[in-house]
Amino acid sequence: MFQVNLSNLLKGKLHMECRGDHVQPFLNHLVRDQIELLDVQRDSSIIHLTIHVRDFRRFTKLVRKYRLRMRIIEKSSGLFFWIQAQKRKFFILGIILFFMFLIGMSSFIWRVDIKGNETIPDEVISSHLAREGVFVGQLKYKIPEQDAIQHKLLAKLPDASWIGYRIEGTRVVIMIVEKKKEEIPQEEIPSQGPVHLIARKQAMIYDMKVLQGNPLVEVSDVVKKGQRLVSGFYGEDDAKNKDVKDAKNEYKKIVGARGKILGEVWYEMNISTPLKQEKQTLTGQTKRIYYPYVGSFILRWDFWRKPSFHQFVKMNHVHPLFLFGVRLPLGMIQENELETRTLHQEMSLSQATFQAREQARNECLKAIGKDGKIITEKVLHRSVENGKVVLKLHFDVIENIAIPQPILQGE
Amino acid sequence: MGLNRQIRKVAGDWFDLPSDVINDEPRVEMVGKSRLDVENHQGLVLFCSEELKLRTNRGIIHVLGKGLKIRMINPYMISISGEITKIEYDQ
């Protein structure tokens, strides 16, 4: 219908009123001059019409030519967008709402990423962060300064040596560098009260870990049995000059020695292993027998039953009855009879020696405790007597040689 | 002009084209009583709220009615609204 021209829409329109005697020829002239007119209305000598702004100059020429009086009633803005906008209010509202939504949503923190922590749990860090005001759902502008957060978090997380913090859009990234833990925590060596530490046996000091007290020896010293290694007195150790018996001496304070003194000790061990050995092995044949029991009373009725195997071991499993998750004082005992067989084994000399050394090593480790370790091990002598391998072994070990000695009053 | 018109007519018949496209003949379209569109007019002769005269190559189209209003006029077409009571060709 209408030739809707984009350029027409982009340009403005003018609503005019013209009055005068020569309205009709004026109108005819306008049409002849190819000026597009819209909404033309005529009341004898008054004419209302709308023209495009681009035709305004030609229009006014003709107005003057026909001696009309002209008046602009309404100017409508030329912007196409504005014309459309007036028609589509909700569309414009939608656009505005969309941008508001976008800006609004992007001003929140949507995610908090914690990176680099190995021992500190995420929950601990995020709870500290939340207390500082960094959490999911927080407004971005409410987040405190970067330096403040780093400082406060460092103070709260003693295990962290450095904390990095940055905001990437709606994401908060926390980088944590943890401190390396000390190898031996202090708790491993228990306190024994007001004691000195003395040597349990003759040894050469290999290493000292003194947590409390005053060490009297040094690494590489050779100590005798009973020698005091660490003094339980704290303070200036001028025992030689001052009267030790003076308990009121202000320089001395009994703290009790605490620590480990690792000394190098020699062990000699004799061990023997028979070359012929008997071993019990399971054959895989089993028999299961069930007995009911009530309390501690077991119902058995098969005492006259012959044993199922010539050689066997018994293994019992108790299967109590449960009622709604409550254990009842009755149930079944499952007795498994496992058939065994005796194996006669004859070992070679080297095999027996190997076994004996293994056994000796285990015994030695058991003797020197959990702090001890074997440095060297040497076979001093080997002989075969009465079907047995007899070994004489030498172990060079490191063990804790310190034992506590109570500090006696008046000492 | 006469020859030109005849060639056009033959061509129009040959290609089965409507004569308003070929011959610049006025095409008048009326919707109910309230709306009238005329294409291929050759200018306005008279316009007031009761009467409108339009020049075409087939003579003058004379429109009578009440409260007539030109919705739009440009060199190619005119669109009129109002209560239209009569349309005729004045030779």
Polypeptide structure, described:
The complex is a heterodimer of chains A (411) and B (91). In chain A, 22% of the residues lie in helices and 44% in strands. Chain A has a 5-stranded antiparallel beta sheet with strand order 11-9-15-21-20. Chain A has helices at 6-10, 23-32, 56-65, 80-87, 89-105, 122-132, 146-156, 349-368, and strands at residues 13-19, 37-43, 46-52, 69-76, 111-115, 160-168, 171-178, 195-199, 203-212, 214-215, 222-223, 228-231, 233-234, 253-254, 258-274, 276-294, 297-298, 312-323, 326-346, 373-385, 388-400, 402-406. Chain A starts with 5 loop residues before the first helix and ends in a 5-residue tail after the last strand. By secondary structure, chain A is α+β, with helices and mostly antiparallel strands. In chain A, helix 6 (122-132) crosses helix 7 (146-156). Chain A has 8 helices and 22 strands. The model of chain A has no long low-confidence stretch (mean pLDDT 83). Chain B has 91 residues and is of the alpha+beta class. Chain B has 2 helices and 6 strands. Chain B has helices at residues 2-15, 19-23, and strands at 27-31, 35-39, 44-47, 51-56, 59-73, 77-90. Chain B starts with a helix and ends with a strand. At the A-B interface, helix 2 and strand 2 of A face strand 3 and strand 5 of B.
